[in-house]
Amino acid sequence: MTDEPEPGEGPVIDVERLGHAYGDLTVLEEVSFALSPGTVACLIGPNGSGKSTLMRLLGGLIEPTDGSVEVDARGDRPVGYLAQTPAFRPQFTVAETVDFYGSLVEGDVDVDATLDRVGLTPVADRPVDALSGGMTRLLGLALTTVGDPGVLLLDEPASGLDPMMTAYITGVIGDVADTGDAVVLATHNLTAAERVADVVLVLDRGTLVAADPPGALLAETGTDSLADALETLVGAEMPTVYAGRQRGEEE
Q1: Based on the number of CB atoms within 10 Å of its own CB, is 188 exposed (0-12), middle (13-18) or buried (19 or more)?
Q2: Which of 9, 108, 131, 216 is deepest in the core (most CB within 10 A)?
Q3: Using CA atoms, how far apart are residues 62 and 185, in angstroms rounded to an integer?
Q4: Are strands 66-71 and 13-22 parallel, antiparallel or unpaired?
Q5: Is the distance from CB of 55 to CB of 153 less than 8 angstroms?
Q6: In what order do the strands lie in the sheet with 66-71?
């Protein structure tokens, strides 16, 4: 048996010329990037730019039309995925929910340690339907780590939450990455992204237009914030929804 790679020794996610189409409608094309263990990658871009499709491809929920996604699975499951609006069995407590998800993987799951990792130990015995919105997202984040997947995919984990809870969740994500997990965080919260990201992936109209550390991205665009950098990269008409294009159609 070989030792597991230490953070920085090799990519845990390797995406090569990835593309996806729904029928004749191309929504993602020629996307390539690689992430090492312990990396937080923030995926940003206008609505309809392909973020959700890319997350689904990374999670293996859909198959690529072109290219490939390679995930170096190092735990009992390849990836942990947190949907934007997670839902759990209301009759379970927080601890019972973690225990239930732990029963679905081969290895042993330390419920107490899992909850402590995200700060939910004080509410371990609370029914999940009595949790606040922020606590519900934290429980979802805890469950992404069950089975030690090594890759966490988080879809807007702090959407709609107050600034204090958003900052707390952002800090937890950074702490999780510090243990060696690679995190892909799809977010519209550019302030949080700037604080936690090791690399920023910018999607626009289905293509990856930048994949750089925040500082490098600001330097390349001559801007002082990710919001300004994003506007520089994708144009001023950021609210415009991109619906894809017909396969074979030129831009």
Answers
A1: middle
A2: 131
A3: 18
A4: antiparallel
A5: yes
A6: 66-71, 13-22, 25-35, 245-246
What is the identity of the amino acid at 20? H
Integer Cα distance of 133 and 114 in angstroms: 19
Q: What distance in Å separates the CA atoms of residue 125 and residue 111, rounded to the nearest whole number?
A: 12
- Residue 239 — pLDDT band, cuts 50, 70, 90? very low
Give the span between the Cα atoms of 114 and 165, in whole angstroms: 19
12's enclosing H/E stretch is none
Tell me how far apart the terminal alpha carbons of the chain are, to the nearest angstrom.
49
Is the CATH number 2.30.30.100 carried by domain 1-59+161-251?
A: no
Q: Do β-strands 13-22 and 40-44 pair in parallel, antiparallel, or remain unpaired?
A: unpaired
- Give the SS3 label for residue 43: strand
- Tallying the residues shown for the chain, one arrives at 251
What's the pLDDT score for residue 236?
58
d(CA 246, CA 237): 22
Distance CA 195, CA 185 (A): 12
The b-or-e profile of 210-247 (16+ CB within 10 A means b, else e) is bbbebeebbeebebeebeebbbbbbeeeeeeebebbee
pTM: 0.86
